[in-house]
Amino acid sequence: MSFHDTWxxxxxxxxxxxxxxxxSVDAAACEASLRELRQLVNDFKYRRPEAxxxxxxxxxxxxxxxxxxxxxxxxxxxxxxxxxxxxxEELLSAARSGVIVARRREVRSVV
Length: 111
Fold this sequence. Notes:
The protein is an alpha+beta fold.
């Protein structure tokens, strides 16, 4: 059974959309995705609430768990946490293998 989930992360310079189990990812999209996810993982490690919420939900879903399982056990994660590093590396590894993709949402101006 395959899951198909998406999340949106609000960021100061544009929202990021994360998709788990995308249909396909080309090489250019994979590189762009890795850049976006590296920033998201950094925000996660530095305890930015929106990044923490989304990273933990994606991580749980990748493991086949309900979206809130990790929240209770990982609120204490900080920049020096080995667990936070492991979660971040797992997301980046999944992005390299095409399991998840992060895309910057294009903002269109309406005049």
